[in-house]
Amino acid sequence: MYRYVEKAARGLRPAAPREITGSPRPRDECLALVEAPGRAILGLPIGHTEIMGNDAGVPFTYAEVRPYAVAESLDELRGPVHGALELPHELAWSGRRRFDLDDDYDRAAAYKIILEEGREEHFRRYLNGWLLRRYWREILPARQVRALWEGRFPELRRAG
After folding, report:
1. 6 close to 12: Cβ distance less than 8 angstroms
2. Confidence at residue 98, expressed as pLDDT on a 0 to 100 scale
3. Taking the CA of residue 112 as centre, how many other CA atoms within 13 Å lie in the half-sphere pointing to its CB?
4. What is the 3-state secondary structure (H, E, C) of the chain?
5. What is the pLDDT of residues 28-47, one digit of tens each?
6. Over residues 86-98, mean pLDDT
7. Structure pTM?
8. Degrees (nearest 5) of the Cα angle 13, 16, 17?
């Protein structure tokens, strides 16, 4: 099976097999993205079990290009410290919405969802600055989210 990945954030589109090989069928399971007709900028071999890598600096996943929000200040995060936390459907849209902040796993899972899916109003309402500093190493948000938050709040790198 041949896969083509669209890179809309960079204005790229999947190359048609004819643009890569001159025939309607791709050769050697090659992924190519083009900026303009006939100008392939990336060609990667892809198999069914291979991990698709990227040495060309082109974003590969949606997580690499989607916009994430970051709070203005950790002190403005005054969410609950203990007890049950019920997340709205707009944050926890794929399943579980109720978390116990006194349970390490639940707290990390809830904070990961809030950090990755939330906006500033969600951060102020559901995150607690003290808990975020204390358990930052256990939360494990997406790489891009971690980099953004640690870039704005260097104390998080040293936290935990």
Report:
1. yes
2. 97
3. 15
4. CCCCCCCHHHCCEECCHHHHHCCCCCCCCEEEEEEECCEEEEEEECCCCCCCCCCCCCCCCHHHHCCCCCCCCHHHCECCCCCEEECCCCCCCCCCCEEECCCHHHHHHHHHHHHHHCCHHHHHHHCEHHHHHHHHHHHCCCHHHHHHHHHHCHHHCCCC
5. 434 444 344 444 444 444 33
6. 94
7. 0.63
8. 140
